[in-house]
Design a protein that fits this description.
mainly alpha, ubl conjugation pathway, three-stranded mixed sheet, 160 residues, SKP1/BTB/POZ_sf
């Protein structure tokens, strides 16, 4: 017997289908499906491209247990701590990572949120504030004097 499917509608009105058991990996989708008896379309305030990536993750981990990610990360090289599928999944533009983090949080998919935050942490790990500003296009709005004062007040944070 074929498993029940759930229909999800993106903010652009694109329809996606996913097996109910995969959708149940999201606490929000589970609650909505159980509330609707799984027969109604679920509208989400999420872009189609983001839903597509989330469904890819949910389908992959439908019958698998996602890896538990050590915190804090011991290395910025995710290939050393994650399965190859996850590393490939995370090969994304930074902007999409941020959008996926928001969507995973909204949908209460904790393992996906942990995975995405690990990717973000790997981009920040062992970087100076200047390198982080450059990587994320953040303007430094401190004067040199203000920055020196902040560094002095927070010396403890830079110690190994």
């Amino acid at each position: 017997m074929e498993e029940d499917k759930v229909k999800l509608r993106s903010q652009e009105d694109q329809i996606f289908e996913i097996e109910e058991s995969a959708a149940f990996k999201s606490q929000i989708l589970r609650s909505m499906i159980e509330g609707f008896d799984g027969k109604e379309e679920i509208s989400l305030p999420i872009k189609a491209a983001i839903i597509e990536k989330i469904l890819l993750y949910l389908k992959h981990y439908k019958d698998l247990e996602p890896p538990v990610i050590e915190k804090p990360l011991r290395t910025a090289n995710l290939e050393e701590i994650l399965p190859a599928w996850d590393v490939d999944f995370l090969n994304l533009e930074t902007e999409m990572i941020f959008e996926l983090i928001l969507a995973a949080n909204f949908l209460c998919i904790s393992p996906l949120l942990d995975l995405l935050c690990a990717k973000l942490a790997s981009l920040l790990k062992d970087k100076t504030s200047e390198e982080i500003r450059s990587a994320f296009h953040i303007k430094n709005d401190f004067t040199p004097e203000e920055e020196a004062k902040i560094r002095e007040e927070n010396l403890w944070a830079e110690m190994e």
